Amino acid sequence: MITEVKQYGATFKLDYSLVYWNSRLEHEHIRLVSQFQPGEAICDMFAGVGPFAIPAAQKGCFVFANDLNPHSIHYLKVNAKINKVEDKMIAYNMDAREFMRHLMTVSKSEQDTDTQLTDILVAKTNEIPVVQGPSDVTEPLETGTTYKEGLRYSATTAHPAAKRRPTFSREDQKANDGYTNGSSQRDGNFKKRIRGYKFPLPRISEHFDHVIMNLPAAALQFLDVFKGLLQRRYWKGSLPLLHCYFFLRSNETAESILEEVEATLQSKIPDPVFHRVRDVAPNKAMFCLSFRLPVESLVEEEKVKDDHKSSESNL
Questions:
Q1: Do 304 and 231 contact (CB within 8 A), yes or no?
Q2: What is the pLDDT of residue 204?
Q3: For position 205, what pLDDT does the model report?
Q4: 76 with 68: CB under 8 angstroms?
Q5: Could you tell me if 105 and 64 are in contact, meaning their C-beta atoms sit under 8 angstroms apart?
Q6: What DSSP character marks residue 83?
Q7: Confidence (pLDDT) at 102
Q8: What is the structure's pLDDT at 79?
Q9: How far is Cα 223 from Cα 303, in angstroms, rounded to an integer?
Q10: What domains sit in the chain, N to C, each tagged with a CATH number?
Q11: How far apart are alpha carbons 18 and 203 in whole angstroms?
């Protein structure tokens, strides 16, 4: 059933039989987006039809929005048009790990030069670009303009530490809504046909500000992708804030979740913030864990070169 819903000035068209939508999360969508600043770069790993991505773009952020479901991407594009933010978004139809690795791939020209970030002219087109990647979904999308060349390897295997959560003895909560990050707007090198609309885009391998992981049933298992994802040589500015949604059961604690995250990233998490979103069952609550990616997650250039040599030797 195709319908339209409205949230805080945004309109969303969707088909309940093909995509996920929960109107009870309206306040949470706005709570998180209120922490974003105009000009920031946002990565939405499980974007759906855009409940975070659309209001973030309306606020003046540039959003890299991904979802594995092609129907979600279709309605994300539709909603970007309806809300007139198609020039502030690039949509991806990929596995979430593949999506993040795809964004962080540094081109050969970037490796060989220290090109400075520059303002570019960007088209305001009728279609937002869609980047497709490997997935279990075979339904094709409309051909779109790619941001970078697609990667050829699989990213579906999780880090050993990112397995199913163990159970613990009691429930705990630490609520705080206080994250803000005022990073400056980043320019970029994404090229499209020019029709006179100027909007500076981020060179995403150098900086992004927030990552949204709104898949509470499994998002914690995807944190392994951030270990060694960012290259110290290219990264500029503060490390990004991650906002990871998860379900907490009555026999689990905030401390046990934090231990799992630290084991996955192999580093301590400074100043984690647990926000209780809502109760979904008598013994089950939805939480959002927000934290800044630890500096230990950055990878050195030598390690990247070694990994590339190892990959080439296995071909």
A1: yes
A2: 82
A3: 84
A4: no
A5: no
A6: T
A7: 95
A8: 98
A9: 20
A10: 2-313 (3.40.50.150)
A11: 33
- Between CA 246 and CA 49 the distance in angstroms is 19
Q: Closest Cα to residue 248, out of 212, 213, 274? A: 274
Q: What are phi and psi of 75, to 5 degrees?
A: -75, -25
Structure tokens that stand for 137 in this block: 């979904």
Environment class of 298 (CB within 10 Å of its CB; exposed 0-12, middle 13-18, buried 19+): middle
Q: How far apart are CA 228 and CA 226, in angstroms?
A: 6
User: Closest Cα to residue 291, out of 275, 314, 310, 309?
Assistant: 275
C-alpha distances in Å from residue 36, one per residue of 41, 166, 192, 208: 9, 33, 26, 12
pTM: 0.73
Low-confidence ranges of the chain (pLDDT < 70): 106-129, 131-202, 301-315
At 185, give phi and psi (nearest 5°).
-70, 140
How are the residues of the chain apportioned to helix, strand and coil, as percentages rounded to the nearest 5? 25, 20, 55
pLDDT, position 298 = 92
Whether the CB-CB separation of 35 and 209 falls below 8 Å is answered with no
User: What is the per-residue pLDDT across 273-300, written as a single tens digit (0 to 9) for each?
Assistant: 999 999 999 999 999 999 999 999 998 8
- Per-residue H/E/C for 224-292: HHHCCCCECCCCCCCCCEEEEEEEEECCCCHHHHHHHHHHHHCCCCCCCEEEEEEEEECCEEEEEEEEE
